Amino acid sequence: MSGIRMPGRSLVALAASLAAFTAWGATIEILNTDSPGVGFNDKTAVAPVGGNEGSTLGEQRMNVYKKVASVWGKQLPAGPVIQISANWPALDCNASQAVLGQAGAVTSWHDFPNAPKTGTWYPAALANTLAQVDLDDGAKPEISSSFNVNLGKANCLEGTPWYLGLDGNAPAGSIDFAVVLTHEVGHGLGFATPTNGSTGLQPRDTDGTRYPTVWESMMFDNTAGKTWLEMSAAERRASAINPRGLVWTGANVVADMPSVLKKGTPMLTVKSKQFPDVAGVYQVGPAAFGPPLSSTVLKGGMARVIDQADGVIGLACDPLSSANAALVAGRVALLDRGTCNFSVKVKNAQDAGAIGVIVVNNVAGGPPTGLPGSDDTVVIPSVMITQADGATLKTALTGNVLATDKITAVLGIDKTRYAGADAAGRVMLFTPNPFQGGSSVSHWDTSATRNLLMEPAINDDLPTFKVSAPKDLTLELLKDIGW
Predict the structure, then answer these.
(1) 66-83, pLDDT tens digit by residue?
(2) Average pLDDT, stretch 363-387?
(3) How many helices (H) and strands (E) does the chain have?
(4) Would you say 163 and 170 are in contact if contact means Cβ atoms under 8 Å apart?
(5) What is the C-alpha to C-alpha distance for residues 440 and 430, in angstroms, rounded to an integer?
(6) Per-residue confidence at 24, pLDDT binned at 50, 70, 90?
(7) CA atoms within 13 A on the CB side of 245
């Protein structure tokens, strides 16, 4: 039996206060590690909000944590007490983005009593539960967690504060702490693999021996045709940046996925006899504005917006010239990302007669993100594709007006596939290129619909305190690893 403290996690000295919550199955203790007057100890008077009757800011924060502990405890089997250290430091943030919170297992263990697999790392809370004993005799908490105390303040997503209600009715422009906390505790319980995605290396024991994690046998790369357990470190490193190519094969997730995700994967199909190299199916990120893609496909010739009078190529940030308007009228316009809002580009193409828009990303990597924004006057569909895919299409279209009617774009959805899963019905893990530390691999892919709790960014439509099918798949993955 052996355990290690996971790298990259630090704990401050534990303060005296402790909140324990005994639920139907598991008992969870919250260890308040904040300094006096900070975080959970903030005595600022506040009014009750959304069922949270705490009279101080710190008390309301703790009330949310107790509720989340209750939700998770009821889902987990009985075992040794699960201790979670919790505090409110100043995490990274600026005017446009912020780290909301972070959490993870403090230690991992292998070859402990009742371990389902030998030579395999399990997160501390799960390992203790399987062994039915606290493997480090209470020397360390099982999970550490931190949340951004500055959220909503100047230069930290100013005007976007935490919502501390318990009712799931976070006002627009706020961030529901209960949802973020439920997500982070999920990581601490085991919704993460400590295998290093940026290097492909498995965690190493104190004697230098590397062992696989419990995740690896259920992480399957569709390109390589292997699980991470079967791969070399170099192959795992490549898999971690294989956009929408890495899937989860655990039986519980696979069985319950159809009750959670919806059918209809957005896609662009390109057809061309004259330019066979561009024909194929392209991954797309759909727009948040305009009509959604549907099973009723939109089909038309593809045309690239060419140089504007000011020398900018394909941006469509101004009304299209007469030459460009003639190119895109009645066709699907190919535009480049940059300079102005996506909705502006699409509206200008629409005003010129385009029936749809494809925006080419201006940075390398994938998968393609969606097009954020809003404009109720946009009535044509639009999507984003990767820079590499855009280069392929632009090579055929650049300087070749005749190609405009020789390349056909078909925008729609594949109703045979669940959004967020591969063709075999296995849910995709988040593997963007380039690698995103803290997000890659240990989350579901952002293409999942419905939105899932364990995606790398919190979505506004997540139901509060729901972690299992038919609302979510977090508990199903935890069951797959042994809970």
Answers:
(1) 999 999 999 999 999 999
(2) 95
(3) 9, 21
(4) yes
(5) 5
(6) low
(7) 21
Residues contacting residue 163 through CB under 8 Å, at least 6 positions apart: 49, 50, 170, 171, 174, 175, 176, 177
Q: CA 419 to CA 265: how far, in whole Å?
A: 5
Determine the Cα–Cα distance for residues 384 and 404; give it in Å rounded to an integer.
19
- Nearest to 407, CA basis, from 296, 274, 227, 226: 274
Sign of CA dihedral 107, 110, 113, 117: positive
Q: What is the Cα–Cα distance from 99 to 170, expressed in whole angstroms?
A: 19
Q: What is the pTM (predicted TM-score) of this model?
A: 0.89
Using an 8 Å Cβ cutoff, are 297 and 410 in contact? Answer: yes
Contacting residues for 207 by C-beta, under 8 A, at least 6 apart? none
Where do the domains of the chain lie?
2-190, 263-418
The pLDDT score that the predictor gives to residue 6 is 39
Query: CA-to-CA distance for 325 and 138, rounded, in angstroms?
Result: 70
Rounded mean pLDDT, 458-464: 91
SS3 70: helix
Fold designation for 263-418: Glucose Oxidase; domain 1 (3.50.30)
For the chain, the distance separating the N- and C-terminal CA atoms, rounded to the nearest angstrom, is 19
Q: Which of 173-177, 218-222, 291-295 has the lowest mean pLDDT?
A: 291-295
Q: Which residues on adjacent β-strands are paired with residue 280?
A: 270
Asked if residue 425 lies in contact with residue 254, where contact means CB atoms within 8 angstroms, the answer is yes
pLDDT in tens, 35-71: 999 999 999 999 999 999 999 999 999 999 999 999 9
Q: Compute CA distances 468 → 219, 251, 256, 292, whole Å.
A: 20, 14, 9, 27
